[in-house]
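thread: overnight batch results

M.L. [08:02]
morning all. the overnight job finished for the chain we discussed friday. pasting input first so we're all looking at the same thing
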Amino acid sequence: MKKTQQSAGTRPTHQTVASKIEFQSASKSIQIEFTDQQLSPHAGTATFWSFLWGSGWISLLEKCLPHPPPKSNNHLPPLCKGLGFIQGLLCGAKKLTHVAYLRRDPLVPEMVGIKRVPSQSVLSRFFQGFSSAGRNLNCFRTLFGWCLERLPSRPGGYALDLDSTRLLHEDGHQEGVEVGYTRVGTKPCLPPLLAVLSEVRLVAAFWLRPGNSGCANNGVSFFLDLWDKLPRHVRLRVVRADSGFCNGALFALWQGLKLHFVVAARLRQPIQRLIQKEISWQDTELEGTQVAELSYQEAGWPVSARLVVIRHRLADKQGRTGGKLLFDCPGYIYQGLVTNLPRTEKLLAVWREYNGRAACENIIKELDAGYGLPELACGQFWGTEAALSLGVLAHNLIVLFERQLGWQEVVTIGSLRYWMFVTAGVISHSQGQTTIKLAVPQKERAWWKRLWEKLLSPFPNCNAVENRPALP
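M.L. [08:03]
and the structure it wrote out:
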């Protein structure tokens, strides 16, 4: 009698009958078995990779990576490591170990166009290749510039928002992690500096700094590097920033470049004393909100600036954010804005212009929650900056992907995963043809077909695709 062939790992090695796996669900029993089919839970990411391979960005990334050609016979090219890392971020990975779990997904190498998904140790060595500020600048300056080149010109220009966030690292053993001020007190952290084009949700530049850096540290060098790579057709209408960037060196720079700016003022004692004096408050169309204008100059400022002061009556605030209590004046909170916008610009319009930078805060939240920036930390500082920069570039590429589809409504990466990326599929290789079959309900297939037609069209067209399939 012949012995039954048994596959390792699915049946016992000795001659016994393998027990069934069952569990109870409501009133019925469900049996669990295993399959050798080439299945993937992330087959929907094929849409993104079809866009990216046709865009030219991948060949640019290959040229920009600073790694020398590998010498091992079983080598994994640097490009494969970078693309595998980006695929992990799209699928929700927040650590290098999470990316390595994609090695079990048989569709990833086929869709992404790589040899195999890198392991955690391979990814760690990959980021060690970013060993200096020069290497990082040479690589990521070009990649961020490519994203900016894909933006259309705007008649009124773009608003550029400067901001700094704090990525907490409680373990504190990574290079560059230092104790710095955060919203939850002084904690070990890393404070990236980033610039966002608000109207299109695109990050124009990203630098990492040690944890004990202030908001405006390296601000002038950062802005000059951004200004140097900004395409001519991308004109800046205004630069906006919070009070951490209320800095004379930045004001002098923007004045020299003939740029308009609106920056939150630090409401320190000199400004508070000015506000307490007899100033002429003007009523506005917003009930309970009044405005006033002063000329003000702090030490280190190149010239006297236009200081717009806003006060809100708490009883009429109705959910509007911003402002702080300054002195014994119950019922009011105050804001101050330093600007060089022309005097013809109404005071309330200056305040509304500044409020537009709330979009930048939302993008920072999206980077943290959707792309795992707080947890993407390597042992070396420049490796951490490279990992974070690739995470930010993944966000930019998703924004350009959505623009390619004609989507105008803001879509988060979390929503995109549910609607599109987390779509199961099976891969087959029949008669030399690689085929991916997507597990899409019949009622949603028309939407998927329109999606693919838009992505694969060789000519730009205005036929936008709905940003989600109709629910059955």
